[in-house]
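Entry — protein

Goal — fold tokens:
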Amino acid sequence: MPDEDPSTDEADDDLLPVRMLNEYVYCPRLFHLMRVEGRWDDNHFTVEGRAVHRRVDDFDHVLPEAGAPEPTPGPDGEEPPASAGEDLGDEPPTISRSVSLASERLGITAKLDLVSTLDDEAVPVETKRGRVPDRPERSYEPERVQLMAQGLLLRDHGYTCTHGFLYYRGSRKRVEIPFTRELEADTLQWISKARAAQLTQDLPPPLDDSPKCNGCSLSGICLPDETLALAAGAPAPGAAAVRRLYPVRDEAVPLYVQEQGATVGKSGASLVVRNRAGEIARFRLIDVSQLVLCGNVQITTQTVHLLAEAGVPVVFLSRGHWFYGITHGINLRNAYDRAAQFEVAADPARCLHFAKQVVAAKVANQRTLLRRNAQDLPERTVDEFAQVLRDIDVAAAPNQLLGCEGNGAAIYFRNFHRLLRPRDLDAEWDFTTRNRRPPRDPINAMLSFAYALLAKELTVAILAEGLDPWWGLYHRPRHGRPALALDLMEEFRPLLADSAVLSAVNTGMVSARDFRTSKSGCVMLPEARKALLRAYEARMDQLVTHPTFGYRCTWRAIIRVQVRLFARWLRGELASYTGMVTR
């Protein structure tokens, strides 16, 4: 399990960081995600690991020449470094921290936590956050290989290095690791395998029901159990549960700024929203997953820099709810998924397979929403939906599929008024048909706004996977349109956007006075936008049971999982794409 973000390694890309060697021995798939694709995510274990290494990394020392010691006092405290070289002799050893070494011959580089040297002998000390393992070796193989690799680097720089120490912070104990010939040979083989693996774009298969996945910060990106379950066919009812290896919900949430004329700035690690009268609100950066600017809202350059570095996207919406675009940092180096996306987009057969899945899922979810919630739904409606789904299954071209989607939408919106139960029975709530650009009634105005929010959500998730949101497989690419986001949002429209609108209307969160209607269209007033945002975010944060995998998580987490599984299908790890259909 990774302790730290790999981006902290100051390493030549041609040389293999020894920390990555540890990850390869632990799990080749984890190594590929971190080293090859540049993926990273934090959990409390990685945060704790960085805290453990922070004191070590505060110093950058250079090793003395072998055979020419320059004693320096060891640090105060209860860590073992000062005693790490006791067996080197009676003279005090030189203690060097955060030592960077590299070897072209070995093809590796490392930043050693601590090295104790005396004359031409050196002892590396590697700090680990956990406790001493309860096993005969009192250590794990990845740790021993990592320490041995450090010993090989020290030898390559002229030192004699016969052993090292693993210091377990949780136990406050050190474990001596002898550098045997067997360990040296194994380490050289691991280096050779890892160096070859960093040059391939093939994602290794996930571990099967491995305890290593528990607590891994990248498990929500790797999706080991989900990938294996779908590769073997969707889990049957009553099958063994798929483990949910990532948090139920994120602690960070989107921040929407709608105050017209406001400016978003920064103060330290916080975002500050101001208007002409002064500060309106302040938010910690760690609590913000997206910054959404609605209309005439400014943002300072320094704040954009801060958000780009932290991997927090800035989303731009117009006051009329048009999704303009998104600003984000360069947080993902992986180009393989994007190359696979363009390759699939050029394959009509795979594009049609994908499009049929998303359209069928959308129509099935529209049917489910009506069956569960519509009043006096005509019996023929279910049969009409069934016919549309049969037509989708046999569609042989995108144009035929567009016709099927249109038929499903006609049935759905013809009955949409049966879902509406507004508390203020005003004629303005009458819904007869879907219209837009501009919407002509409050329901259509809210649907347009909710779809813009959903398109934003999918764009953020797609960019997080390193895919191109503008290059779709069903919606044809067009300037200024996030075609892939529109593709993947289809199955979520009734589940999230439509449901949020219904919740806002039927619970009285909005009223007719929150809209301004004229011959030119209907406009949402600030009160309506704020109410719909509350309903939308409540829906996104709602805990639901995943219809395929059986565990509980939020709808926002389900969107991320769906986009990641889509990327697995692009790369060929999954034979087919499966649309999200609620039960």
Remarks:
- The first strand starts at residue 16 and ends at 17.
- The chain has three domains: 6-197, 253-327, 336-570.
